[in-house]
């Protein structure tokens, strides 16, 4: 029998025991769905994070007060929480670092509100717009570009004028047929004049709509807006040269320690986050998730291989007379063994293909919830999954195939 004839014969045998085959294939599917799903989610988030780093700039880093956003260390022990960066500390850091390193760009911003409704001309947006206050370097350091209008003037930045730069989603809702520049909008009980419109950016990791849902006001204006508590300031530093990033981080650490009054011998009261550090954190998490996915997949595939071996042994018993007829007509032990091996592999490949499709869909669904904006197919892991299918089929089918090949044709023909 040719290879294709063996496959057709395998499909015929599978259709004859459809329920048992489907149940076994589903076990294979579950194992590969767990493995491919977890790996797809990790790779999709890595891909989206890489795009985010590209938009933020690889030569930039951010400084945050230690303890915010990660309040627990390993083992569940609560980490020490330091006071957030104040406006005075942020401005002193910016002044001192740019004095020491003239080519450095420092941007200071403050998050005002993340669930804001913007109104204009009887229209209003969904209550999911972000209001951020930023200095003259904010757009540059975030790599945001204007498609209409202008940036804030020095006078507007110094006096805290009620002017704003808005994102595309805000413009499409409030001014669908007109330019928003020069128009007035209302937010947080204040009236702002629109002076600029940001280019469409789409959403990145963490969601939020990127620049499309952003309402940017001058930093001094943000300090004057009504709020329930003190603002937390974000400081981002960028250098035009990638080679000087490590040196600049050292300089930034020294300046910020002086600004924060960290005593000699005391740990830093702040964290420096860069693309490299965040990538290292993601790799650590990804390694643990891959290990967990591998264990889940191994256990599921172990159960699938046992079930498949059982089905193949039952199949050999049920088809003993058929095997005797084949051998009487000239089939060799090698041909019989190959027939049953191919049947086991076909069952695994059918179940594995379904599991891989489910895993890719589930993985991208998880990545979408985490903020990824693109559909990602990990072709390398798909190939690994199919290889695992073939391997499981070979291992589970070897013993039943050997048993079938060793049957005596005379005794097989007498079998009832």
What does this structure look like?
With 416 residues, the chain is an alpha+beta fold. The protein folds into 2 domains: 3-52 and 279-414, no CATH class; 60-273, no CATH class. Helix content is 55%, strand content 15%. It contains 13 helices and 12 strands. Strands 1, 2, 5, 6, 7, 8, 9, 10, 11 and 12 form a 10-stranded mixed sheet that branches. A hairpin with a 2-residue loop joins strand 8 (184-187) and strand 9. The radius of gyration is 32 Å and the shape is elongated. The chain starts with a helix and ends with a helix. Mean pLDDT is 81; it is low at 70-77 and 204-208. InterPro entries: ABC3_permease_C, MacB_PCD, Macrolide_Exporter_MacB.
Quick structural gist:
The chain has 416 residues and is of the alpha+beta class.
List the helices and strands and how they pair.
Layout lengths: L2 H14 L1 H39 L3 E6 L21 H14 L4 E12 L2 E2 L2 E2 L4 E6 L3 H4 L4 E4 L4 H6 L3 E4 L1 H7 L9 E4 L2 E9 L15 E5 H6 L8 E6 L6 H16 L9 E4 L1 H44 L1 H9 L4 H37 L9 H27 L3 H6 L2
Instruction: Write down how many β-strands occur, each being a DSSP E stretch of 2 or more residues.
Output: 12
Put simply, the count of helices is: 13
Oligomeric status: single chain
| Residue share in helix | 55-70%
Shape: elongated
Average pLDDT metric: 81
Major sheet details: 10 strands, mixed
- Helix-strand makeup class: alpha+beta
Distance between the termini: 26 Å
Topology as a string of helices (H) and strands (E): HHEHEEEEHEHEHEEEHEHEHHHHH
Radius of gyration: 32 Å
User: Domains counted in the coordinates: how many?
Assistant: 2
Strand content: 15-25%
The low-confidence parts are: 70-77, 204-208
Pfam families: FtsX (PF02687), MacB_PCD (PF12704)
Subcellular location: Cell membrane
InterPro entries: ABC3_permease_C, MacB_PCD, Macrolide_Exporter_MacB
Protein name: ABC transporter permease
